[in-house]
């Protein structure tokens, strides 16, 4: 492929993403970073975990993304009595026209392109585990029968940081499977005005279908082709290393407050996110700035604080911010 | 390659940018480094300038200093300019300033990858090429000026300040310029010194305790020492001697009066006595004596020895006499055996230790060859060889002596058999034997005796010859060694750096020293034998004199009588001989003492020399740790010091061995046995009495030892108190001591139940005001002393005023006496009337009440004395049992001394 063609592809990618973000922005007020993060997770082939208090529009955001992408969407409200079969599906006895009975697999909510796992931490670990396994493998096996989930398969899980009583917080190993963890913040006053204006009018805004499923797959493929220069990749690696308290490049905060640093999946996420960021900015290669942009969302759920960190109320975002500040780009 | 070149877009624009930016960076680096270098150069030049001004630097050297400074600046600038600046770093700067999102850096990296692939496809090649093109497109946005701005060097400010300061300092004219003569510092004003004494009141309490111990233990030595210490304290108080001198003299006094066997030595002697007792208990004749020694009951042992003496004197039965002689001989043999075992054990230990050291050194040398260790090894080997030779020689001597003794015994026995035969009778007996008649004399024994005598004479002659030969050889060897040393010394002087010669010289000197030591040992041994012989002779003569029952006065009278032609009562010959022998012995002892002293002085001088040398070398090594020669010398020095220490120990051990009382006891017993055999029961009794005296001496030593131990402890406390003794305050106009001393005197005054000085303990100092006119004893029998005034110390004039308000301290040392030397007349403020008190029956006050009362009213009461005595015993016990550090011990003792009952 000639450089000119590459440039055209990148431009098309940038334009599509811009259009998609614009369309989502028609419905979702504010939360640009969240929307970008969700789109990045989708294009990277990962899943996103949205954390925020109820009523901030998390479910709305996911629905809007599904609408704008022209993809199948399903929603599962996680409750303590939700069973794995409710998500994955189950074999049921079905009677045919001739009256003979047979088992037929009834697909669960997971058989969609975009799945909203609402309040994921309310379901039991067994159920959570069923979903997370499917997220990782992108396939479902029931009664020795395997069903491949149709790509793109994108799970957006939400969790409420409040009302922790009666919840089952996701274990660290399962959190690691989310490409990004996005924090949904309370909207600003200006954004609140806009939300009120839009949602209290006669008609509620809806997103139009902007990008097709096929285009999404193409874009996903393009992301993987973006190169990374070794110094830039080295920067990503050093950032990851600095999250480990025992590492020589660890910052004082990570030495003091971190129990376990991020797994290599963190670096994978950072690099993929950075590639998407580069494409979204019309560039052909990843820059250190791209890494700086995506690192907080990719690392915040992969760093486990120690008791001192928890007791001091230190957030993983603070740790990552310090690491990014302290790690030099060129070594 | 051509394909690659075609494939990779033209990145000349990027490289041009990099070059320009790098150039600017180098320029900036050169400026920074040159500035820093200039600071160093200015400092260097300043130092040079100052040294030049002081005349320590020549003009040429100053110029060279400036040149070096200039070169330093230039060198620093070059170093700053040529330092490596990586492409990545330059690109990063450009990317950052132009906000190019790492385009240039990434493009360079991709270009390197593509060019490195040499035409081979590279992963994501299309994207990489696109990224390079994109970077080239954006290169125009980057600016080398922005990426590497030329800034003012960091250290420029500092350079300016230093340069300005340097200019000012360079213009300063030093008082000691090169032309100016050296101005000597004016001599320090000599302060008028006057001996300044120390406060020793507190120390005298400890001296009193020492005197008490002397009286209690009936130890005149200790009493004498206390007297001398008192004199020393007076001198210290007057300022005639300082503390250092005092401590030296105290040490000398201690060495003189508290010397003698220590606890361990006495314990060792007692253990030996116990072993001896065990052996003696086995024999019926000496069973009681053995039991007494075994139990360590020396008094009983003395009684037993006395009994044995009486038995020996009164025993008429030859068989019993023989049995007793055997028993006594056995004691001395047992003791000799014990002494031998001890000596052998000590020698074996010494040899084993040396062998161990040698093995260790050899092992270390096998790992790493160090000349110092090799020299040490040689030294140890020589020492081992000497000891082994000495050991072997001693063994041979002993074997020879045993053989000679055996001959002598046999000759004695044979002579006993033939003592009644004259040579004529012996000849007659021979003829009778030839004629088949019964001979009168034992001819066989006589022949045997003759033969033995000849053999003994031959043996003695051989020994003498051997000794002469050995002596000649030794002398020849000594001369040869002396010659070799002379030559080596000459060689070493010519070439001092020749280590081989030095080592050889050292070795030869060591050999010479060992030879000298051997000679000395031999001489000592001979001298000892001679001394013993003299002692034995003296004893015999004294005994003879004793038999004549002559007092020294009678002997003197006899001498006068004989001079007048009359026959004296006492045999003058014996007296003369005795006097002569005693003089000889005295001469011998003096000679030995002198030699020992000389040896000790030599050793002390050598030690001092070596220690000084050691200090010097250590300092040298501290200044220059790499000085191998100094290290070698230091090691040598240490070895010599070790050797001196070893010699000293050996000599001490030998002296100890000679002083062994047990040895003397054994000698007396042996002599007694001999006398018993020779039918001299009176002499045997005398010897046993001597043995008894030896045991008595031992008992006395043991008794004195506990006193000495206590005295040593008391000396420790005394020394500690002396260490804390303060100098007397100046300017208090003849007052003894300053405020502290005044306080102490006031305390003593009140402790004795007398009124104190109200002003001495100021309010707010934690003390109550003086208790004027109190001082009554419980029961009010003793009236209070005159209130608040004492005569004004030794020198009147500044004593506390009558109202107890205290005077101003004098401006200096008083020059004259106050005319009113005794102070004002005592005014008795207290009204008192004599009363007769009746005792009240009852328990009296409790202990706590007594103590409280003493604390408030003084420590002069009977009840308090009783309480104190009880408590003092407990304190003494605890102080003896517990390990109380000397510093704390001082405080405890001081406290109890302060609260002791007063008269």
Provide the descriptors you would attach to this structure in a database record.
heterodimer; A: 331 residues; Rossmann fold; two-stranded antiparallel ribbon; 11 strands; 15% strand; globular; B: 903 residues; mainly alpha
In N-to-C order, the SSE pattern of chain A is HHEHEHEEEHEEEHEHHHHEHHEHH
What is the mean predicted local confidence, pLDDT of chain A? 87
CATH architecture of the largest domain in chain A: 3-Layer(aba) Sandwich
The helical percent of chain A reads 40-55%
Radius of gyration of chain A: 21 Å
Percent helix range of chain B: over 70%
Proportion of residues in β-strands of chain B: under 5%
Name of the CATH homologous superfamily of the largest domain in chain A: P-loop containing nucleotide triphosphate hydrolases
Q: Please, what is the oligomeric state?
A: heterodimer
Biggest interface, which chains?
A: A-B, 26 and 22 residues
Largest sheet of chain B: none
Tally of strands of chain B: 0
Number of strands of chain A: 11
> Could you give a short account of the major beta sheet of chain A?
5 strands, parallel
Task: Please give a structural write-up.
The complex is a heterodimer of chains A (331) and B (903). Chain A has 331 residues and is α/β, with parallel strands linked by helices. Chain A folds into two domains: 1-81 and 113-225, 3-Layer(aba) Sandwich (Rossmann fold); 226-331, Magnesium chelatase subunit I, C-Terminal domain (Helicase, Ruva Protein, domain 3), CATH 1.10.8. In chain A, 48% of the residues lie in helices and 15% in strands. Chain A contains 14 helices and eleven strands. Chain A has a five-stranded parallel sheet. Chain A has a two-stranded antiparallel sheet with strand order 3-4. A two-stranded antiparallel ribbon of chain A has the order 6-7. In chain A, strand 3 (89-95) and strand 4 form a beta hairpin. In chain A, helix 1 (3-27) crosses helix 2 and helix 12 packs antiparallel against helix 14 (316-326). Chain A is globular and about 75 Å long. Among the domains of chain B are: 2-171, no CATH class; 509-679, no CATH class; 750-807, no CATH class; 846-903, no CATH class. In chain B, 72% of the residues lie in helices and 0% in strands. By secondary structure, chain B is mainly alpha-helical. Chain B contains 28 helices and no strands. Chain B is extended. The longest helix of chain B has 52 residues, at 443-494. The model of chain B is unreliable at 1-5, 177-186, 188-194, 731-737 and 760-807 (pLDDT under 50). At the A-B interface, helix 1, helix 9 and helix 12 of A face helix 4, helix 5 and helix 6 of B.
């Amino acid at each position: 492929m000639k450089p000119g063609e590459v440039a055209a592809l990148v431009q098309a990618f940038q334009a599509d993403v811009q259009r998609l973000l614009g369309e989502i922005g028609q419905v979702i007020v504010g939360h640009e970073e969240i929307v970008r993060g969700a789109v990045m997770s989708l294009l990277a082939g990962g899943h996103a975990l949205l954390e925020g208090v109820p009523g901030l529009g998390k479910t709305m955001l996911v629905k809007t993304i599904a609408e704008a992408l022209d993809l199948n969407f399903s929603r599962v409200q996680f409750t303590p009595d939700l069973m794995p079969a409710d998500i994955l599906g189950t074999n049921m006895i079905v009677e045919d026209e001739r009256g003979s009975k047979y088992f037929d697999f009834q697909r669960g909510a997971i058989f969609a392109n975009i799945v909203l796992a609402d309040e994921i931490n309310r379901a039991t670990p067994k159920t959570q585990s069923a979903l997370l396994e499917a997220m990782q493998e992108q396939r479902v096996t029931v009664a020795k029968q395997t069903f491949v989930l149709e790509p793109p398969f994108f799970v957006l899980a939400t969790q409420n940081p409040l009302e922790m009583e009666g919840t089952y917080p996701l274990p660290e190993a399962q959190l690691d499977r989310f490409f990004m963890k996005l924090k949904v913040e309370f909207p600003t006053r200006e954004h609140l005005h806009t939300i009120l204006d839009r949602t209290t009018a006669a008609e509620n805004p809806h997103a139009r279908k902007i990008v097709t499923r096929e285009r999404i797959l193409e874009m996903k493929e393009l992301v993987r082709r973006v190169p990374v220069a070794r110094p830039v990749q080295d920067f990503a690696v050093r950032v990851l290393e600095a999250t480990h308290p025992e590492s020589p490049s660890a910052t004082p905060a990570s030495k003091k407050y971190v129990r376990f640093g991020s797994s290599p999946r963190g670096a994978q996420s950072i690099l993929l996110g950075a590639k998407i960021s580069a494409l979204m900015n019309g560039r052909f290669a990843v820059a250190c700035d791209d890494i700086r942009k995506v690192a907080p969302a990719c690392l915040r759920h992969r760093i486990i604080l120690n008791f001192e960190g928890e007791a001091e109320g230190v957030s993983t975002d603070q740790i990552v911010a310090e690491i990014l500040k302290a790690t030099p780009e060129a070594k | 390659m051509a394909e690659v070149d075609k494939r990779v877009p033209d990145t000349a624009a990027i490289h041009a940018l990099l070059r320009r930016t790098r150039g600017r960076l180098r320029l900036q680096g050169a400026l920074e480094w040159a500035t820093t270098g200039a600071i160093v150069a200015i400092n260097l030049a300043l130092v040079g300038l100052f040294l030049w001004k002081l005349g320590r630097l020549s003009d040429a050297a100053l110029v060279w200093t400036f040149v070096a400074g200039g070169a330093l600046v230039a060198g620093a600038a070059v170093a700053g300019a040529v330092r490596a600046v990586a492409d990545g770093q330059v690109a990063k700067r450009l990317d950052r300033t132009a906000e190019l999102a790492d385009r240039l850096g990434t493009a360079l990296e991709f270009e390197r990858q593509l060019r490195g692939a040499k035409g081979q496809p590279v992963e994501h090649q299309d994207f990489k090429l696109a990224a390079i093109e994109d970077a080239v497109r954006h290169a125009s946005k980057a600016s080398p000026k922005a990426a590497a701005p030329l800034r003012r060097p960091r250290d420029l400010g500092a350079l300016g300040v230093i340069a300005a300061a340097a200019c000012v300092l360079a213009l300063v004219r030093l008082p000691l310029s090169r032309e100016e003569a050296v101005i000597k510092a004016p001599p320090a004003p000599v302060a008028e010194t006057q001996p300044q004494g120390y406060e020793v009141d507190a120390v005298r309490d400890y001296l009193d305790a020492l005197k008490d111990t002397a009286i209690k233990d009936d130890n005149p030595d200790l009493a004498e020492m206390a007297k001398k210490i008192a004199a020393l304290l007076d001198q210290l108080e007057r300022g005639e001697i300082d503390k250092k001198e005092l401590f030296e003299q105290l040490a000398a006094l201690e060495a003189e009066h508290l010397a003698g066997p220590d606890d361990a030595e006495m314990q060792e002697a007692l253990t030996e006595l116990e072993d001896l007792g065990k052996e003696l208990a086995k024999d019926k004749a000496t069973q009681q004596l053995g039991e007494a020694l075994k139990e360590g009951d020396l008094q009983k042992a003395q009684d037993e020895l006395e009994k044995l003496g009486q038995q020996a004197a009164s025993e008429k039965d030859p068989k019993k006499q023989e049995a007793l002689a055997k028993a006594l001989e056995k004691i001395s043999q047992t003791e000799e055996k014990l002494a031998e075992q001890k000596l052998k054990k000590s020698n074996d230990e010494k040899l084993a230790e040396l062998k161990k050291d040698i093995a260790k050194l050899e092992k270390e040398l096998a790992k790493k060859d160090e000349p110092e260790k090799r020299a040490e090894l040689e030294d140890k080997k020589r020492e081992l060889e000497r000891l082994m030779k000495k050991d072997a020689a001693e063994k041979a001597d002993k074997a020879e002596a045993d053989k000679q003794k055996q001959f002598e015994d046999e000759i004695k026995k044979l002579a006993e058999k033939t003592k009644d035969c004259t040579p004529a009778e012996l000849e007659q007996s021979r003829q009778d034997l030839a004629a088949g008649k019964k001979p009168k004399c034992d001819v066989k024994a006589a022949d045997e005796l003759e033969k033995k005598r000849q053999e003994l004479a031959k043996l003695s002659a051989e020994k003498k010859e051997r000794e002469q030969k050995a002596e000649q050889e030794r002398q020849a060897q000594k001369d040869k060694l002396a010659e070799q040393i002379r030559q080596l010394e000459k060689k070493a002087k010519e070439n001092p750096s020749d280590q081989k010669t030095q080592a050889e010289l050292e070795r030869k000197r060591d050999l010479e020293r060992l030879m000298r030591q051997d000679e000395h040992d031999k001489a000592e041994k001979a001298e000892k034998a001679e001394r013993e012989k003299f002692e034995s002779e003296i004893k015999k003569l004294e005994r003879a004199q004793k038999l004549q029952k002559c007092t020294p006065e009678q002997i003197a009278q006899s001498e006068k009588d004989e001079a007048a032609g009359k026959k004296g009562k006492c045999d003058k010959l014996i007296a003369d001989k005795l006097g002569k022998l005693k003089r000889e012995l005295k001469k011998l002892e003096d000679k030995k003492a002198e030699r020992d002293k000389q040896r000790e002085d030599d050793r002390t001088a050598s030690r001092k020399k070596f220690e000084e040398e050691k200090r010097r070398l250590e300092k040298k090594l501290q200044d220059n740790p790499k000085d191998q020669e100094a290290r070698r010398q230091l090691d040598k020095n240490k070895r010599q010091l070790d050797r001196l220490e070893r010699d000293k120990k050996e000599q001490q051990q030998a002296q100890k061995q000679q002083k062994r009382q047990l040895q003397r006891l054994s000698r007396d017993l042996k002599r007694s046995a001999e006398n018993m055999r020779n039918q001299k029961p009176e002499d045997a009794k005398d010897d046993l009495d001597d043995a008894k005296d030896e045991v008595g001496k031992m008992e006395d030593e043991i008794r004195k030892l506990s006193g000495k131990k206590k005295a040593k402890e008391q000396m420790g406390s005394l020394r500690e108190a002396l260490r804390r003794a303060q100098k007397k305050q100046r300017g208090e106009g003849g007052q003894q001591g300053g405020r502290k001393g005044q306080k102490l005197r006031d305390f003593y005054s009140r402790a004795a139940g007398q009124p104190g000085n109200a002003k001495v303990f100021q309010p707010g100092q934690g003390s109550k005001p003086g208790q004027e006119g109190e001082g009554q004893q419980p029961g009010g029998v003793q009236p209070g002393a005159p209130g608040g005034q004492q005569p004004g110390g030794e020198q009147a004039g500044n004593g506390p005023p009558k109202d107890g308000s205290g005077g101003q301290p004098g401006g200096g040392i008083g020059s004259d006496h106050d005319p009113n030397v005794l102070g004002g007349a005592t005014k008795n403020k207290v009204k008192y009337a004599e009363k007769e008190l009746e005792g009240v029956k009852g328990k009296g006050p409790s202990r706590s009440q007594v103590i409280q009362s003493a604390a408030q009213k003084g420590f002069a009461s009977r009840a308090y004395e009783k309480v104190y005595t009880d408590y003092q015993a407990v304190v003494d016990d605890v102080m003896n049992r517990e390990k109380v550090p000397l510093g704390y011990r001082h405080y405890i003792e001081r406290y109890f001394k302060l609260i002791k009952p007063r008269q």
